[in-house]
Amino acid sequence: MEIDDQLDALELAHAEAADAERDDRLARRPRPARRVPPPRRTHGAPLDALRSAGPWRVESDGSCWLDATAPFGSHAPDALVRSYVEGAMGSALLGERLPVHALKRRWAMLASPSSDRTAAAAGAARDDAREDDARSARAVASERSCELFHNAGDARAALAATLASRGELVSVGEVPWPEARPLPYPAPRLGTHTDPSQTRASLDALARALDAGAHAIVLASPDALGRALPPGFVTEVAALARDRALVIVDEASHPPGRAPAEGDHLADVRVLGGPSLPGLVLVRGDADVDVDAPDAEALDPVCLARLDAWLSDASTALDASLETHVLERLLALLGRFPDAVVAPHAAGGLFGFELPTPQDAAALWAHARAAGVLLGRRGSHVLARVGEGWTRETLDLVFDALRRGLKALEAGLPSCSNTPAVSVSTTVSATNADSDSDSVSDSGSGSDSESVSVSVSDSDSDSDSVSAADTTSAALVRVRVAPPDEAETLLDAVVALEARVYEPERRDPREKLGLAFHDPAGVAIVAELRDAPDAPWRLVGCALGAPLERVHGVEGCDDDPLRPAHVCLYALATTLDPEARGHGLGLRLKAAQLEGAAALRRADGSPRYHFVTGRMRVGVTGAMSRINARLGAYEVRRIAGQYGGDAAATYYRMPVRRFVPFSALARTPARSPVVELSGAALATPAWGTILRSGALYGPAVLGAPAHRALDHLRALAPGYALDVHASARAALAAAITSTPRPTSARSSVEPLASARSLGEAPLAGPAGARFALRGDDAVSIGCAPLPHPADDLDVALAALRALPSGSLLALELVQAATGRVVPDGYLSELARAPVRLVVVETATFGWRRGPSPLGASALGNRPEQLVFGRGALGLVWRRVEGRDAEACDVEDVAAHAPIDALALVRLHHQLEAARAARLGEDDPEPWLLDALAPLVHRGVVRGAGLYHVAEVGDGRALARKLAAHGFSTQATAHHVTFAPPLDLGPEAYDALAAALA
After folding, report:
1. Which of 418, 670, 787, 888 has a 20 to 30 Å separation from 250 between CA atoms?
2. C-alpha dihedral over 621, 626, 629, 633, to 10 degrees?
3. pLDDT digits (tens, 9 = 90+) for 576-627
């Protein structure tokens, strides 16, 4: 099938899938609550982002897994969901940028020792409201400074480049620092495996490295395997390195704020990061390290919004009781299986242990998966990460799966090949849901001018989702919308119910409850029970709601940021008679309330409600909290001093439909107010429309792999398998170091093992012939430079003919840094050269040059690998023969080097828009050349298609000038890149020409 035909078929399939998902609601298919005997299913279906939460991963085929590999330790952590649906993430997606200086300061405060945090907080208080003031960019405390990067990989690379010329770099721990020479790791201090002699051996090895001239020491705490450094180790290293070497503590393999390094105040440099978060380099003022950070404008605003949400959440620290429970269970495993469990470790929510061989680890991983538990695996290690939403019970499920798997290994039983998943039970025990006892003053009884109607299926006949516990009780229990002609009778019954259930101070006034019955936009759901089929119905429960803007004098409601938008239903009361337990009424009541809210429409037909909000008393409403969580609730804020002053309330929000960011609905410009000219966007899709559909919820909040985007990217290169990496640098390094090498007897080059499963591939390998054109990015990865044919074709051809047979040549058809183009004469000779070819598509990817999505399509010989990358996303297409289309498991990689799935999804939408633009009648390339004409007289403009680079006297000054006219460019000291979106109109090019004139 031709590429265009395959892309057409994919676009149709994706549109049909999106249509099928558009009306998906948690009220109909709640999130999982418990395990039941699993069906025989295989893990690997696309993630159901709506139903996955906390430790539970639900897939599109209905299977459910207890997931210990989620990037943040949990699916849909509250901070990120709140940021998304309340506007911060949506605003970032639509082009708004956050104050980078303020984020640097907050990020560094989290990374600093407590004394530094106190000083930073005091400084912040004196900064008035100017969080982006230049003073706060560097001064976290008087002795600390910090720089932000696209991701932890870029932060490490920038720091390593600074240190490369100063001496040897050594490391202690499993960290992706390929430039560093690894030294023995000190023994983990857990259980009976404490080994002071190994700690001493590590310190002795460090002392010898320092004596030999090592300039810097990288300490991983915890490292990528979750091992923490022994107490006092950093202190001893700092004493050894005093005045001789830098001490670098690397915690970028861990979510921030989870496990601060012991003795971190002694570190000269800290490197932090986290799954789907930017990287940070925090430098002590006297450390003499100059890190070349990227321009703040080049940082991805969505990554910054994600970081802002993470930093603003008070629940990022793991519950200490869970950490204690993890340690207890690990020690129990160690005592039961002393020969199998080697070096157990636990730090900040990441725990695991080593097994004797990688084969044992693979078998244990398969046994756990057969039990419905997803673990991480790296070599002979098995790993698990816990976070928000985990409980002792879910941890017990993980350890029970580990214990059963270890018993099977001990007995020599084979691992299961058919792996069942955990089925989701949609029935839960009924709950006694305490109602909120706060008083509500009505703003008036005037009628709402909106036209509304409610239609909710009675649960007696709706057995597809939240049904009664059994068919017998179903005939005796019903949940329904209160009809208008029964309002007063039912309201009397509700008041009487609260009198029976609650003490006087917790009963709601009649006028408060009446809002649900009498307001045209109110929702009143009642549950009724009868003792026999011919007996009368009597009310045993209710779920009442009224417009949030009608509720006054209630903390949480009055200052809700969505209150002015009139899109929230406030849950006035959810009450259930204790005698009605056992019928699943708690879940049925709340689900019916959501269905009722979803059914309400405004006069113009648009939805009346997007969210249901409410308050619950912390500590006494556990059952209702669990039901709300099953239906998508997240905590907006915790309010102290409620219910008489001695209790706290949680103010929650849950979506009525899919998770869709409301604030983005009111602001949906066709394009960003800033026009990107730096290649950041291949095209400018209608982000507002995409946001409204909820299509970006899963990747934006969960960081889960985006299978549709992967299918799209695979289809761009028939005959190639796709690998995804955590950064552009990692992708290029992996392509160079893992390209298959000749195996003939004449070759003196040894094959290199693929490093794609490591996320960050080694930048140097066994000696081999690896070359790149001078100025190409691959030179920085370790390729020897060749003359560029754009400078002197004859010299370049002579160098090409002199290459040894079987050499690897990494080639940029259009050089990203300078815009130099490889001429046809060189490509003709290259087609006959006996070299293995890796084509870097940085400047030619996505229809930017010619009618094909990849520039390499025009080459006479098929490259071994194709590479594209930008910032936190790197792609490698590996040539495969026949039907061998194996690609790496992105989810496994994400457990060790998390992939930014939002970047994948955004690229997918940009590629669709770019293809549509290229299929149009207008060719924008002449418009770009006309706009750049003023620069031709002042410098050199090189490039092809929609990628040109201008060499000017002061690139950054020109970038600032263009920014004042609304154009964002990528600039260096002497070059400015012009890579506009493919769908940019002629009027924008006219404006660019005017700005350059």
Report:
1. 888
2. -10
3. 998 887 778 999 999 999 999 999 999 999 899 999 999 998 888 888 888 9
First CA to last CA across the chain, in angstroms? Answer: 47
Residue 475: its pLDDT value, please? 63
**Among 905, 686, 708, 698, residue whose Cα is nearest residue 15:** 708
Q: What is the dihedral of CA 581, 585, 590, 594, to 10 degrees?
A: 180
Dihedral sign computed on CA atoms, order 457, 463, 465, 468: positive
* Distance (Å) of CA 425 to CA 29, 377, 466, 469, 683: 10, 29, 10, 11, 44
**Contact indicator for 111, 272 with CB cutoff of 8 Å:** yes
Q: How are strands ordered across the β-sheet holding 350-354? A: 342-347, 350-354, 381-385, 376-378
- Identify which of 700, 657, 873 has the alpha carbon closest to the alpha carbon of residue 309: 700
Rounded to whole angstroms, how far apart are CA atoms 653 and 644?
24
In terms of C-beta density within 10 A (0-12 exposed, 13-18 middle, 19 or more buried), how is residue 513 classed? Answer: buried
User: Rounded to the nearest 5 degrees, what angle is found at the Cα of 437, between the Cα atoms of 432 and 441?
Assistant: 140
Residue 585 exposure: Cα atoms within 13 Å on the Cβ side: 30
Q: Cβ distance 739 to 836 under 8 Å?
A: yes
Q: How far apart are CA 63 and CA 608, in angstroms?
A: 33
SS3 287: helix
Q: What are the DSSP calls for 898-943, one per residue?
A: ---HHHHHHHHHHHHHHHHHHTSS---HHHHHHHTHHHHTTSEEEE
The set of residues, in sequence order, having a beta carbon less than 8 Å from that of 672 and lying 6+ positions away, is 94, 95, 684, 687
Query: Tokens standing for 358?
Result: 């990688």
By the 8 A CB rule, do 373 and 254 touch? no
Helix (H, G, I), strand (E, B) or coil at 770: strand
Question: What is the edge-to-edge ordering of all strands in the sheet holding 970-971?
Answer: 940-944, 947-951, 975-978, 970-971
pLDDT in tens, 337-396: 988 988 788 877 888 898 999 999 999 998 998 888 999 888 888 989 888 888 888 899
Q: Are 759 and 765 in contact (CB under 8 A)?
A: no
Q: Rounded CA gap, 365 and 414, in Å? A: 12
- Residue 42 CB neighbours (<10 A): 14
pLDDT at residue 474, as a whole number: 54
Asked if residues 345 and 205 have their Cβ atoms less than 8 Å apart, the reply is no
For the sheet with 865-870, list strands across it.
720-725, 873-879, 865-870, 836-840, 808-812, 770-773, 784-786
The sign one gets for the Cα dihedral 86, 90, 95, 100 is positive
Angle formed at CA 779 by CA 718 and CA 271, multiple of 5 degrees: 95
The answer to whether the beta carbons of residues 891 and 705 sit under 8 Å apart is: yes
* 729 in Cβ contact with 874 (< 8 Å): yes
Q: Pairing state of beta strands 423-424 and 35-36?
A: antiparallel
The CA distance from 493 to 487, in Å, is 10
Among candidate residues 877, 878, 808, 811, the one with its CA nearest the CA of residue 836: 808
Mean pLDDT by 10 residues, the chain (997 residues): 84 83 83 62 74 86 85 83 81 77 80 51 42 41 71 82 82 79 74 67 90 89 72 85 88 64 73 81 82 75 84 66 87 89 80 90 91 87 87 91 93 56 37 35 32 33 36 70 93 92 80 93 94 90 95 90 92 89 87 95 92 90 88 90 83 87 59 72 82 76 74 90 84 79 30 28 46 90 91 94 91 94 93 91 89 83 89 87 51 50 86 86 87 85 93 88 88 89 90 91
Query: Whole-prediction pTM value?
Result: 0.81
